[in-house]
Specification:
Shape: globular
Number of strands: 13
Number of helices: 9
CATH topology of the largest domain: Rossmann fold
CATH architecture of the largest domain: 3-Layer(aba) Sandwich
Structural class: alpha/beta
Order of helices and strands: EEEEEEEEHEHHEHEHHEEHHH
Radius of gyration: 21 Å
CATH class of the largest domain: Alpha Beta
Distance between the termini: 34 Å
Number of domains: 3
Helix content: 25-40%
Length: 301
C-alpha cells in the first residue's frame, strides 16, 4: 500500500501499476508500507490479507492508536533549529523506533541559521554520544530550492539508498520541503493520488509513499506533522530498555525490577549522581524518563 484516505487505499503492483482497493470489513487495518494480497473487482480491488509485518511504527494516547507505516528500514526524525525543537517529542519518537527495532536517524534542519543551529546542535550532543546519527540539513522552500546545500542532500540520499524511510517530525520542521527536494514530482503525484481516491484533499493529512529512484528501491514516506506523541503502547518498566544511555547502566542495578527512580543500588541513579566524571545520563534526560514513567504508570480506563 502506498497511500490511503479513510477506507480507500492505493495499492501498487509489482509492475508499478496503482489501483484503488477496499477492505472487506467496515474498518481498514492496512497501513502504508504493508504488503497485501488482493483480488480484482471491476476496475478496483478488494484486500484479502495483510502479510505479516516486520514492524509497525505507531503512537498511542489514552484514546486511540495512530499507525504511521509498516515494514520500515529507517525513521528519519526531522526537527528544526528554529523554532526550538521539543526534546520530549524527540525522545518519544526515538523510543517508539527502538521499540520496533527500526533504526532512527535525527536530521536537524536550518543549518544556515548559524546561531540557532549551534544551540540546537549542542543540545543534541547527548544523542550523538548515545550513538544516534545526527545529520545537518538546510532545506529551503520550493521557491529557494536551488540554494539548498547540495552536499547535505547528496549525503542524505546516500543514507536513504535502498531503504524504506518514514519522515517524521512536528509541524513546521520542513517535511514537505524535504519531500519536494527529494521527490520533485511529489505535488503532481499527490494531486493524482487525491484524485484517484476521490478525497478532494491534499494527502499530507494522511501518509504517502514516494519512490525517490527510478528502480523503486528507495522509498520516502511522508507523514502528517504532530504536536503530541503518546507512548501508551509501551510498559513503563520497558522504558529504560529503549533509552541507550539508561540501558548501559541499568544492568548494574541491584534489583532486576528496578524502576531507576528511588531504589538503593540503582546503576542509573548512581550514574546520574556521579561526580567522578561527566555523567553519560544528563539531568534533563533523567527528568524526561521520570515524567514518562509517571505518565505511563497512570491507571487506564
Amino acid at each position: 500500500m502506498v497511500a490511503g484516505f479513510g477506507r480507500h487505499v492505493l495499492v501498487e503492483t509489482e509492475s508499478g501499476q496503482r489501483l484503488i482497493c477496499h477492505p472487506r470489513g467496515k474498518k481498514s487495518q492496512v497501513v502504508v508500507g504493508d504488503r497485501i494480497r488482493w483480488l480484482p473487482s471491476q476496475d478496483e480491488g478488494t484486500i484479502e490479507k495483510i502479510e505479516e509485518r516486520n514492524n509497525l511504527f505507531h503512537r498511542q494516547d489514552e484514546l486511540r492508536t495512530k499507525s504511521f507505516a509498516a515494514n520500515l528500514d529507517l525513521v528519519l526524525i526531522l526537527i528544526a533549529a528554529e523554532p526550538e525543537f521539543s526534546e520530549s517529542q524527540l525522545t518519544r519518537a526515538l523510543i517508539a523506533a527502538e521499540a520496533e527495532r527500526i533504526k532512527p536517524v535525527i536530521a536537524l534542519n536550518k543549518s544556515d541559521l548559524a546561531e540557532p543551529f549551534g544551540r540546537a546542535w549542542a543540545k543534541l550532543a547527548p544523542y550523538r554520544a548515545m550513538g544516534y546519527q545526527v545529520v545537518p540539513l538546510a532545506i529551503k522552500p520550493k521557491a529557494d530550492i536551488e540554494v539548498s546545500n547540495d552536499a547535505q542532500t547528496a549525503c542524505l540520499m546516500e543514507l536513504l539508498q535502498g531503504k524504506k524511510t518514514l519522515v517524521l517530525g512536528p509541524s513546521g520542521a520542513g517535511k514537505s520541503s524535504l519531500t519536494n527536494l527529494l521527490v520533485p514530482q511529489a505535488k503532481v503525484l499527490t494531486a493524482e493520488i487525491s484524485q484517484a481516491l476521490n478525497s478532494g484533499k491534499h494527502t499530507t493529512t494522511s501518509t504517502t509513499l514516494y519512490w525517490i529512484d527510478p528502480a523503486r528501491t528507495s522509498a520516502l514516506i511522508d507523514s502528517p506533522g504532530f504536536q503530541e506523541f503518546g507512548l501508551h503502547h509501551i510498559e513503563p518498566m520497558q522504558l529504560a530498555t529503549f533509552m541507550p544511555d539508561f540501558k548501559a547502566h541499568a544492568q548494574n542495578c541491584r534489583f532486576y525490577n528496578c524502576t531507576h527512580l528511588h531504589e538503593p543500588g540503582c546503576g542509573v541513579i548512581s550514574e546520574v549522581k556521579s561526580t567522578a566524571s561527566a555523567s553519560s545520563i544528563s539531568a534533563n534526560r533523567y527528568r524526561l524518563y521520570s515524567e514518562l514513567f509517571a505518565e505511563l504508570s497512570q491507571p487506564r480506563y
